[in-house]
Design goal:
This protein is 41% helix and 8% strand. With 210 residues, it is mainly alpha-helical. A two-stranded antiparallel sheet has the order 1-2. Strands 3-4 form a two-stranded antiparallel ribbon. Helix 5 runs parallel beside helix 7.
Length: 210
């Protein structure tokens, strides 16, 4: 989960009105247009777990559930692209009981990396220096999107190959001036930015040189 930059709303959303239409009325063509903007924002990754999404394994996700608040059905600011994994992310959120959306990290408004840190075993947890309110936000986000369920092992398989690289950077940090190893680390970080689970990989790489 990382910070997203939301673009301009697709004009097709203005064709639909709360109280007049429901989400089922959105045409396949308009959904394709919406996906074009979501892909631009999310780089074809799930907004919550960062797994790669494509036709057949994704859905347009309402951050504030349209079933509980139909007024947000066609609000561009409420739409994200989510994977179709039933045990996590958008689908898992919609199976949970009552919770307050205000207690969740909304990745186009807040920076998830301020709240969350990924560990070498694939798990994610709240950062230690958060206020009680911020910690609740981090904890609820992990719970509602089930970011530590089956995703932990999936994430581990993606990051395990970078653990040795992180250890090599740690060795360089301990033995050489920053000017010698920092450009190499920055170059490595630039190569992973578009990968699935990039934030978890990033945290593994930088955790060893702090």
């Amino acid at each position: 989960m990382h910070k997203l930059q939301r673009g301009v709303a697709p004009t097709c959303l203005s064709n639909y009105k709360h109280g007049q239409d429901n989400w089922d009325k959105v045409t396949a063509e308009d959904k394709a247009t919406i996906w074009k903007e979501l892909d631009a924002m999310q780089m074809q990754r799930c907004a919550y777990c960062e797994a790669t999404v494509s036709n057949g394994n994704r859905h347009i996700e309402h951050f504030r559930q349209k079933g509980r608040d139909p007024t947000v059905s066609f609000q561009w600011s409420n739409l994200f692209g989510s994977c179709n994994r039933a045990e996590s992310c958008g689908k898992h959120k919609d199976q949970c009981g009552y919770y307050s959306p205000a207690d969740l990290i909304k990745p186009d408004e807040s920076d998830p990396e301020y709240y969350l840190v990924f560990a070498p075993d694939g798990s994610v947890k709240p950062r230690e220096d958060l206020s009680s309110t911020e910690k609740k936000c981090a904890t609820e986000t992990i719970r509602i999107f089930n970011l530590n369920g089956t995703l932990r092992q999936i994430r581990f398989r993606e990051i395990v190959g970078y653990i040795q690289t992180a250890e090599e950077f740690a060795n360089m940090a301990n033995n050489f001036p920053e000017a010698e190893w920092l450009p190499l680390l920055q170059e490595e970080l630039a190569t992973i930015i578009n990968l699935p689970f990039a934030t978890a990989i990033k945290h593994i790489l930088i955790s060893q040189v702090k």
